[in-house]
């Protein structure tokens, strides 16, 4: 059932809690699921709750080295983020966006557009908006 949610996915953000080793262990499951169904999907590993570590509220349970090693194995990029403070959240989404806009092959049906999406009907006639 869950495979329908990532069918034709070109990018996946796999999030885990930097203060909870078990959440990082579960990331392996999701990476395998996605790559089994979408082998060309670009992976981004997102360690969350960085603010708890920086503020010394909780200890880091997942080492940077472990994450980097895992990321190498699945050709993923790594970001450590905090939703509370916003640390690296923008950088993560900018990187995902940049990857797509700089590689038009990732844009389904938009090859050669260099990131400029053009809306069109199934017969190729340009559309004035997404719902017309």
Key phrases:
globular, three-stranded parallel β-sheet, 34% helix, GTP binding, Ras-related Rab-24, Rossmann fold
Question: Secondary-structure map with pairings?
Answer:
Blueprint: E1 11-17, H1 21-37, E2 42-48, H2 50-54, H3 64-73, E3 76-80, H4 89-101
Parallel strand pairs: 1-2, 2-3
Helical fraction: 25-40%
Q: Count the DSSP helices.
A: 4
Q: In the CATH classification, which architecture applies?
A: 3-Layer(aba) Sandwich
Low-confidence runs of at least 5 consecutive residues: 110-117
β-strand percent reads 5-15%
Largest sheet features: 3 strands, parallel
Instruction: State mean pLDDT (0 to 100 scale).
Output: 83
CATH fold assignment: Rossmann fold
Q: What is Rg?
A: 18 Å
Describe this structure in words.
- The chain is α/β, with parallel strands linked by helices and 132 residues long.
- It has a single domain (3-102), classed as P-loop containing nucleotide triphosphate hydrolases (Rossmann fold, 3-Layer(aba) Sandwich), CATH 3.40.50.
- The protein contains four helices and three strands.
- Strands 1-2-3 form a three-stranded parallel sheet, sandwiched between helices.
- Mean pLDDT is 83; it is low at 110-117.
Summarize the model shown.
By secondary structure, the chain is α/β, with parallel strands linked by helices. The protein contains 4 helices and 3 strands; from the N terminus they run βαβααβα. It has a 3-stranded parallel beta sheet, with helices on both faces.
């Amino acid at each position: 059932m869950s495979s329908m949610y990532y069918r034709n996915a070109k990018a996946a953000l796999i999030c885990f809690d930097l203060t909870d080793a078990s959440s990082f262990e579960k990331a392996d499951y999701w990476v395998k699921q996605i790559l089994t169904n979408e082998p060309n999907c670009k992976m981004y590993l997102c360690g969350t709750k960085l603010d708890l570590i920086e503020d010394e509220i909780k200890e880091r349970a997942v080492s940077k080295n472990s994450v980097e090693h895992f990321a190498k194995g699945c050709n993923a990029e790594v970001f450590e983020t905090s939703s509370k403070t916003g640390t690296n959240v923008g950088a993560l989404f900018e990187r995902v966006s940049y990857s797509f806009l700089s590689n038009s092959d990732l844009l389904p049906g938009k090859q050669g557009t260099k990131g400029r999406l053009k809306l069109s009907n199934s017969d190729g006639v340009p559309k004035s908006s997404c719902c017309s």
